[in-house]
Amino acid sequence: MTGGTRDLLLLVYTPREDSNQRGYEDWLRTIDNPFFNGVPGIRHYSNWKVMSPADCAFPYTHFDLMFLADAAAKDRVWSNPEVMTFAQGWTEKWGRYPRATPETMHMNYSVFLCSTVAGDQRMAGRNLTIMPAKGPIAAPPGDQVYEIAEPVLGDVRFTHFALRYLPDGRAVDAATRPAGCYAAAQASLIAAPNRDR
Question: Which residues contact 86 (CB under 8 A, 6 or more apart)?
Fold first, then answer.
């Protein structure tokens, strides 16, 4: 690892095609986000929607940022029976493959344990850009940089990523993204707790 502690779970996914018509975002705000922010070991959990077109570099429509209380919290969170039951309910209601088994759950979502490399882990707005890379990132001040320390579920498409909060939601283009980042996906906040971390 290049530095930091293993303190973030990145969840990436694309829910079922009819999810928006069935009230997915409202469910995230009223059910999902409060549940995960109440799980022991989770310090701060937020839900994000990708606003730019999906591509092979970041082929997901949604992602969640789950900051952990400490480096040991991943096992406590991921083995929590309530979390396992909740995840199964999400799969049945919103997953593209609602009958997925634990062995095939990666078809619905991927989860990566990440280490903080740079930045203060502060949620600094309702719009951000996630910028994947296949190696270390030398980001400008203000960007948050993470390294994927281990895949919890699913295959790793990138090894590092940077987050840049943009108050007005403007795009990050090739000229302004950090060296090494080969893509930039614009995202908007769906849900976060009404409290500071």
Answer: 35
Q: Give the CA distances from residue 178 to residues 2, 60, 137, 153, 168, in Å, rounded to whole numbers and listed in that order.
A: 17, 21, 7, 27, 19
Contact yes or no for 128/166 (Cβ under 8 A): yes
Helices (H), 7-166: 24-27, 33-37, 73-78, 81-94
Q: Which of 111, 110, 118, 196 is nearest to 164 (CA)?
A: 118
Amino acid residing at 68: L
> Is this prediction's pTM over 0.85?
yes
The answer to whether 193 and 37 are in contact (CB under 8 A) is yes
At a CB cut-off of 8 Å and minimum separation 6, what does 114 contact? Answer: 6, 7, 8, 9, 10, 146, 147, 148, 149
Pairing state between β 179-181 and 144-153: unpaired
- Structure confidence by residue, pLDDT tens digits, 39-91: 999 999 999 999 987 777 789 999 999 999 988 899 999 899 999 999 999 99
